[in-house]
Amino acid sequence: LWYCESMERYRMFSHWCMETYGHKLYRIALDAGMTCPNRDGTLDSRGCIFCDAGGSGDFATKYDGQKIDMSSVSYVHHPELGNGYFIAYFQAYTNTYAPLARLRFLFSSALSDPLFAGISIATRPDCLGPDVISLLDELKKEYPSKFIWIELGLQTMHEDTARWMRRGYPLSVFEQAVNVLQMHGFPVIVHVILGLPGEDKQRVLETVRYLNRFHLFGVKYQLLHVLKNTDLETLYEEGKIQALTLDAYVDLVAACIASTDPSVILMRLSGDGDPEELIAPLWSLAKRQVLNRIQHELKTRNITQGSWLPL
Question: Rounded distance, CA 286 to CA 295, Å?
Fold first, then answer.
């Protein structure tokens, strides 16, 4: 197996980086000025129910294709690191939802920047038309030494929850997008939100096991954050929804790890909330404490990634 007793009990992204590059990679979240069909009126104008005005890019650095000024990236913990230590993470809003020429300029600018080992593009599965796939194919050939990852915000496999949160596309669209991306050789990372109303442990694990069939490159397990100025905040303040407790979240993450295909890289187990915008749960701000609790839970219950799956 890829792990041993002295290592972590799940396939950490940092371990993959060390195995592949000999050092860690650090994401620089970018805001490239995109919008989203769930905000510009194409599908809706309100966005997903949990999404704030920043389009999930509250920590993102504005990016217009010019070289990144590292002194402006306040959350980079190792500013002394140089070329090849960073990932250009196109995070805010939907990052394939723009004119093709604009996408070509932005992506090629990041790929040609020696600072970046590659790029990761957060987008929607319904914004990956043939023209976008063709562009990505061209860039892959043009920059063979750089990776291009695609991150899809599925959040849940359950259609009733998806309608409640205004996701805006059916599961079949997600499946088609993953199949096309993998057919063209692009690693896929999928986001799953834990703590969505009506999603008990059984339903969450149904999503986890559903994703196992796709042989994904990575999964991000993200705690549901109640942020200011979102429809979710209104529901929370009215007492119509509740945030997960730390104990409940740790238990749920442990179950997800036990149910995840061991080959999948777990890119995230908690998520970062802007302290100025976060309403609940406030315990999530102590990220190191949360991760330590998860590690303790895994050790206490002797859980390793995939240990609940049939042999």
Answer: 15
What is the dihedral sign for C-alpha 205, 94, 62, 65?
A: positive
Give the number of other Cβ atoms within 10 Å of residue 6's Cβ.
Answer: 5
129-188 tens-digit pLDDT? 999 999 999 999 999 999 999 999 999 999 999 999 999 999 999 999 999 999 999 999
Q: Are strands 226-227 and 278-280 parallel, antiparallel or unpaired?
A: antiparallel
Nearest residue to 132 (alpha-carbon basis) of 169, 179, 100, 105: 100
Chain length of the chain: 311
Strand intervals (E) in the chain:
26-31, 61-62, 86-90, 116-123, 147-155, 188-194, 218-223, 226-227, 265-268, 278-280
Give the Cα separation of 32 and 252 in Å (integer). Answer: 34
Backbone angles phi, psi at 95, to 5 degrees: -95, 15
Give tens-digit pLDDT for 204-221. Answer: 999 999 999 999 999 999
Q: Are the C-beta atoms of residues 114 and 85 closer than 8 Å to each other?
A: no
Q: What is the pTM of this model?
A: 0.94
